Amino acid sequence: MFRTLRTHTHAADGAVALFFIQMVSTLGYAVLYSTLVLYATRHLHFSAKEATAIMGVFGAFNYGLHLFGGYLGGRFLSNRNLFVGGMALQVVGCWLISLGSAAGLYWGLALFLTGSGLNVTCVNMMLTQRYTPEDPRREGAFLWNYAGMNLGFFVGFTVAGHYQLSEDYTRLFLFATLGNFLAIVFALGNWRTLADRDTPLLDAGRREFGWRFAAGVAILVLLVPLVWFLLLHPGPTETLVKWICAMVALALIVLTLRHPDRLERNNMWAYLILTIGSLVFWALYQMAPSGLQVFAVNNVDLHAFGYVVAPQWIQNINTVVIVVGGPLLAAWFNRLRAHGWAIDIPSQFAVSLLLMGAGFLALPAGIRFANPEGIVAFGWLLGSYLLQSVGELLISPIGYAMIGKLAPRQYQGTMMGAWMLVTGVASLFAGDFSGMIPEPTGTTAQATNPAYATLFAQLGWGSVAVGVVLALLIPLLRRLIKDKDTPTDDAPVAVVPAK
Q1: What Å distances lie between residue 332 and 17, 278, 339, 356, 437, CA to CA?
Q2: Which of 18, 258, 434, 461 can pair with 291 through a Cys bridge, CB separation 3.0 to 4.6 Å?
Q3: DSSP state letters, 154-221
Q4: Which residues have a Cβ under 8 Å from the Cβ of 326 and sit 6 or more positions away?
Q5: What domains does the chain contain, in order, with CATH numbers?
Q6: What is the pTM of this model?
Q7: What's residue 377's pLDDT?
Q8: CB of 237 closer than 8 Å to CB of 110
Q9: pLDDT tens string 232-266
Q10: Centroid of chain to Cα 217
């Protein structure tokens, strides 16, 4: 089978291999993303506030290290070397977490985050390098690669839910090592095919190459204890990351004020305004594996259609909506645009925030109609996730696509990096919001429902308020954006990963 895979991979110049690599490498992240809070609270007996704080830092490091990995790969280590090294760290990290101790959790997370944070960018870079800029197969390759990632998420969430029903965390985290190990096997089996093309490292002589390789390995190893130390101090770490993000935001504002070209400066202002809306959306969205999951486990009737719904399976609502709804929404928008509807970046951002707000407001409504024991019907949670997922379809793809539309060429890397950083800091705010939930230990659903209802209502109405403000700013944003060469009405709607 693997021999056949290699033959087809060669014909597709590495794209087929990267599809399978993306699929299996996603399994470990899907397991941790959907299980970390439950494992910390149920097995290690962390408080809900401690567990959600760790989850917030987990998301921040994952996205923040993506940026550093993009710099490290191709300059100090080849992308394939960095990918395999990162996967090896993830294998050891998941194994340590499977041992079932708090010390194993922290060291395991440090290893896993260093690996996943640095090597996610490597897959995209290896796939990008398979094609010339004008090659029409590039778009299809990335769509298939994205499909592989979502398939990995679906399998990871499904298996995680299966083991969650019996709380067999040891086998679950050992399963996570399997996906990472298979990714290493697939990468080594296609080593020649996945070689770097047109990177700074290729221009280095033998001596410089050796020095860079040694420096890259040293950075990879030294990052682990640094991440471990920061995980042990989530409060100061969260403050540090937020200050870094505030300085990045200030630098972007100064850059915009000083930019000499008026048309490009207007686009940069539009980018900054929309970034605020994005921060609000992702801060609420990333409560799914933390605060919303704790609520689901303790206050929702997880029985549907005669089956017990494992908490991790709820995440698959989003996966199915993205995979199925993305093409359908794109086709619908194309039809609406053909009939003269102005569906552009500002309007999609505004509607996405309104949908996110509606998703959170569905939860207090469900609490209002809870049974005498305070247990909420599963349909209310299902409706909330469906609304949030449709909102993601509107903001996630257009967010990535708008960088090429709004960013001046010389700032595209910086503004894309800042956009990804927004998702990281949003994870910290999601941890803050989730830390406001009541502790489920020693109490009942009926006792905690009022606190949940208040928190969800505040967050829901807050998202609606930001959505309304963006809707009111649509005329201004259209004036800022329409000076760009490409008209905003042609903004593509393509499914892009947000995790």
Answers
A1: 33, 23, 11, 21, 38
A2: 434
A3: HHHHHHHHHHHHHT-HHHHHHHHHHHHHHHHHHHHHTTTTT---S-GGGGS-HHHHHHHHHHHHHHHH
A4: 393, 397, 493, 494, 495
A5: 1-232 (1.20.1250.20), 233-499 (1.20.1250.20)
A6: 0.80
A7: 95
A8: no
A9: 998 898 898 889 888 988 999 999 999 988 888 99
A10: 26
Per this entry, what is the length of the chain? 499
Helix (H, G, I), strand (E, B) or coil at 39: helix
Give CA–CA dist 219/86, Å, rounded.
12
At 233, is the secondary structure helix, strand, or coil? coil
Residue 12's pLDDT band (cuts 50, 70, 90):
low
pLDDT digits over 18-39, tens only?
889 989 999 999 999 999 999 9
Highest mean pLDDT among 143-152, 175-184, 323-332: 175-184
Looking at residue 344, its pLDDT comes to: 80
pLDDT at position 13: 65
Pairing of strands 307-308, 303-304: antiparallel
How many other β-carbons are positioned within 10 Å of the β-carbon of residue 5? 16
- The CA distance from 87 to 94, in Å, is 11
* Sequence-distant (≥ 6) Cβ neighbours of residue 292 within 8 angstroms: 384, 434
Q: Give the DSSP letter of residue 373.
A: T
More confident residue, 162 or 496: 162
Residue 23 near residue 175 (C-beta atoms within 8 A): no
Q: Distance between CA 337 and CA 348 in Å, rounded?
A: 13
H or E segment and range at residue 406:
helix 378-406
**Residue 9 pLDDT:** 40
* Residue 90 amino acid letter: Q
